[in-house]
Amino acid sequence: MEKVRSSVTNFFGRVPLSYTRFSLTQQTDGDASQVEMKLADDEECGDQAVVEHVVKPRNGNNHSKSLCFKILFASLIFLIGFLIGYLSYRGRSEYALPKPNNDHNGDSDDLSDPEVFIAPETSNILYWGDLRSMLETETAKSTSVFTDTIKKWSEKSSEAEPAKEESVANWIHDEFSNIGLDKVWNDEHYVRLQDAGSSLNKVTVLKNGQEVIKVISPTTYVAYSPSTSKSGGLVYCHYGRKQDFITLSEKNVNVTGNLVLVRSGLISLSEKVKNAEFFKAIGVLIYPEPSDFAFPGDASQIINAPFGHAHFGTGDPYTPGFPSFNHTQFPPSESSGLPKIPVQTISSDDGKNLLEFLDGVNCPSQWGVQCMLGPKLKEANSVTLEINNVLAEKKIYNIFGFLRGFDEPDRYVIVGAQRDAKGPGVAKAAVGTSVLLEMAQILRNLVKNEGYKPRRSIVFASWGAGEFGSVGATEWLEGYLTTLHTKAIAYINLDSTVQGSGTFRASASPLMYSILKNTMNEVNVPASSYTLSSLFNKDDSKFEDIIVPFSMEDAAYPFIAYSGIPSVSFSFKKDSKSYAYIGTEMDTFQSLQSLVDIDTMCSTVTQIAGQIILRLTHDHKLPLDYDEYNGVLLRSAMALSKKYATLKEKGLSVKWIYSSRGDFKRASDTLTREFTDSDTDDKPMLRSLNDRIMKVEHNFLSPYVSPKDTPFRHIIYGYGNHTFTALMEHLNLADTNNQLFDEDLFRNQLALFTWTIQEAANALSGEIWDIDNEF
Questions:
Q1: Are the C-beta atoms of residues 225 and 197 closer than 8 Å to each other?
Q2: Are residues 73 and 7 in the same domain?
Q3: What pLDDT, on the 0 to 100 scale, is given for residue 368?
Q4: DSSP string, 574-614
Q5: From residue 243, how far is each of 247, 254, 274, 290 by CA, in Å?
Q6: Quick one: pLDDT at residue 22?
Q7: Are 266 and 297 within one domain?
Q8: Per-residue burial over 738-747, b = 16 or more CB atoms within 10 Å of its CB, e = otherwise
Q9: pLDDT digits (tens, 9 = 90+) for 114-145
Q10: Can you tell me the distance from the alpha carbon of 601 to that of 494, in angstroms, rounded to the nearest whole number?
Q11: In Å, what is the CA distance from 657 to each residue of 595, 625, 705, 712?
Q12: Average pLDDT, the chain
């Protein structure tokens, strides 16, 4: 505009004319609209050529010149007005909401399909405070719908078993479609699950090998247990952890050739079985100890035998590492995590009765149980475990719906809940499903009615066969692993989120810690004015106290440990204890209602998950805090430093661990500066920086192990010789049992662990020409 004024001044101030160019440029999403006007010494005005380079006397042909100037000035004003109108129209049209593509019957879940994504040119312009307020308002409107949805789910899930899976899946599909999501589709798999046999499993206490003293016939079973019969003595092994078995060894209690009795909790059921196998037990009995669990009201302190699975892995154990599709021609394959010894859960009362049969050495005082360890039995000499489970091939469904992002539709946040349950499953599955459906409705309302434009897409997932070890979720991950690690931002798990009230616990990737903290600072404790952060500020507790390790039974676990996708699970509990009835026939609506206000708790869960989703889809910069991993890596290096003398004796050093961790720290600091200095309107640059953040978790998957043989490849949170935990356990053998220490194996563990960290640092640094590391 300054050039325009200068040109006009030239006309009216009688200064020499010169070649002048001006442009009015509007740049939105890379589009440019440019208008040029030339005022040159050889241009004509009407029929009058302007050829003089000097100022004419005022008494010259003033009439012709005046007419020329007026025409030029009028043309200039017209062009300026036209440009102002054009820019105004473009501004209005860019912020108009797009028409949703309600293709509810599509069967493709390739979210990178260009026909699926026709993204508008702009993203949201809402401030976070306004968006959070909208979420609270929408959630408040829907508080009373959760119990209705749970009851509908219960009606569908109570149908005959053969029709149950398909009926509930179709209902979820219809619900997603009715909400008006941008696309709804199904994902089908043919998997091998396990059912109870025609006759009940049994535990029999015998005298002299023939006389029956006691028979236990549980009404449930443990999936993937071998169908066999084993007899032997009985040993009590507390929670079945490795340290518990080591304690037995120190007390000269022989586990080999005997069955073990353990209580549930602290570690997954499958891990208990794995440990028992390692110490050469021939079978496992698992009972719930009432003191470990929370009960509703004045309920009887008795817990029936819970359902569980014994696969030390995830997904369909008969297609490890690859998805279960129909009529595949793959060779027969079995997961190495399938148990080789029989396992059965029993009730809390049956567990106590078996304890009374034990004789021998007293239990350690630190176990807090007055009992004998066995394997001798009072009035008896053996226990027989008989399993009659049968394998069955079944068709399962994953149901998806999504809301399309406006800036980066091919980047998406996934939120999911398992749909199936053994027994009523209200706390286990119905609560998560009701929150999933209502959250889809709320977020759709924000987009449709409130003008929210998420930068990235949101995928809502209802998983099949979750009870058997996250089978549906894992088969989907296996089917789209190559795509997901470059496009999936995070996973939020809604299973078993309401198990009480008053205490909040979460399992999360370090990348999700900051999001979790910020959310806890803004969501209130149910039925109070205090934020959730007050739960870890009281009694001198810290945020770290609410973080618990991922369980292998957690549906979020395969996302982080197998696929390298940042994940979070959370739940409300009573006195930090798990709900007693999960996995049993007592997990009913009435039981949960007598424990908590279901609507209030579900509304709070929706607020937490909703805020996490909105934070991940609202900001220019992904709010995944990659800097948190600096602390994780530093603690690992310090743990190794405590073994300095042992390492030095082997000719090894922690120098390279500290070096790779230092490179990761420098890379994270550099990336933070790049974000600070970046232009928020430079979308290609922002996308490039965000992609580096997205891949941090995936870069901690070891590239040196097979996803088929070692699915949990994460070096910090996985299982296997590639992990830091395995490395430290092996190094400890050098001090405790040097004959078992394999120096070559340890050197490989240390080298590959170190180089995985170095690769993560290099990837975070950006392009190869930006990396300045000395190997």
A1: no
A2: yes
A3: 85
A4: BTTBEETTTTSTT--HHHHHTTS-HHHHHHHHHHHHHHHHH
A5: 6, 15, 13, 22
A6: 30
A7: yes
A8: eeebeeeebe
A9: 344 444 444 446 888 999 999 999 999 877 89
A10: 13
A11: 49, 22, 20, 22
A12: 85
Structure tokens at 705: 């192990």
**Alpha carbon distance 626, 515 (integer Å):** 12
| C-alpha to C-alpha distances, 667 to 58, 624, 626, 692, nearest whole angstrom | 70, 15, 10, 11
Domains of the chain: total: 4
pTM of the model: 0.83
Q: Mean pLDDT over residues 542-560, rounded?
A: 93
Place of tokens 């027969």: 332
pLDDT at 77: 75
- The pLDDT, as a whole number, for residue 59 is 45
Query: Which position has the token pair 């599509």?
Result: 106
Q: Which residue has the tokens 């010494």?
A: 41
Over residues 93-110, the mean pLDDT reads 41
Same domain as 315, residue 291:
yes
Domain CATH number, residue 723: 1.20.930.40
Supply the range of the domain harboring residue 325.
202-388
The 3-class SS string of 277-326 reads HHCCCCEEEEECCHHHEECCCCCCCCCCCCCEECCCCCCCCCCCCCCCCC
CB atoms within 10 A of CB 720: 16
**236, exposed or middle or buried, with CB in 10 Å at 0-12, 13-18, 19+?**
buried
358 and 260 Cβ atoms separated by less than 8 Å: no
Is the separation of the CB atoms in 656 and 663 below 8 Å?
no
Lowest mean pLDDT among 77-91, 527-541, 567-581: 77-91
Sign of CA dihedral 126, 132, 137, 141: positive
